[in-house]
Amino acid sequence: MIDPHDLEHCRSAIRHGSLSFHAASRLMPTRLRDPALALYAFCRLADDAVDLHDHKRAAVRRLRERLDAAYRGVPRDAPADRAFAAVVEDYDMPRALPEALLDGLAWDAERRRYATLSDLRAYSARVAGAVGAMMCVLMGMRDAHALARACDLGVAMQLTNIARDVGEDARARRLYLPTDWMEAARLDAESFFAEPLPLDPVREMTRRLLHEADRLYARAEAGIAALPMAVRPGIFAARHIYAGIGLAVRRNGYDSVSWRGRTSRRQKAGCLGLSGLRALASAGMPRSAVLYAPPLDETAFLVEAAARPGPARHAWGEGRAGSLVSVFAQLEARDRDRRALARDAAGAS
Description:
- The chain is built from 16 helices and no strands.
- It has helices at 4-17, 19-25, 30-51, 56-71, 79-91, 96-109, 117-139, 144-164, 166-171, 179-184, 189-194, 200-224, 232-251, 265-282, 300-306, 319-348.
- The radius of gyration is 20 Å and the shape is globular.
């Protein structure tokens, strides 16, 4: 059980450090909201420990020591560590999931760049897909299909963050745009750092990131609709609030260099209302074939780590029925992609 004083500290940290998650958490039932706040507080602490310190490699090393202590049941004497250790014990959290998060933060410490969109998805899988998988564990959803869609949602959120922060990252001499995109556009990273401008090629790369995020949000929705009804509003809220950031960037002509997209309090409130309605509308609806789509190659290791042993772990690739479901899932996802492209084209005109 999480100590109430530790939980209040976690709640305060999220209230000030992650407005989007704090807003979404208001729609979660208490039995999920409290451990989720503890989980997010530890993740926030880990991210800040690397991002806000000059000696980043040493910061990652200390985080690994804190994670090890939490899993040994002797956490550091700090509220977020104690709360996270309680979550680990109460929910039998697979260690590979927070380890993946720390791997992603280590990549940040190295200032690693990503050659392809697949490489960027691999990074996003670690810093955000792992959090989606951990949320599934808190819900008791250890089914491989639900885990795959939760990882889709986490990756979509991270790609949205990257698209929003292109200018901010450039001014800090960080680059998350795939370097093969940069090369194709004949843009040099050092020149971009020296003078970050919302050039047309940069806007186009931002558009491509948001298009990929939209594709994954659509895949994730099939998983949200398969969750217990009590938790659907909160997860729908997270999906819509983060997608709203992408919509703000899109409305600004994909310029996230001279302006940082965000959602207002009023927009967040609108997302909460929409999410409740969407949760109600999903009741009794047949499950989408997209639920059974294979996990992203970049998130499959997270699904394997969190799924319970048994036939369901590999159900997406077994037998003629599994193959048929996969075909339908791909067709439905492709149809969603075509509709998204049509919306982009309409907006551009």
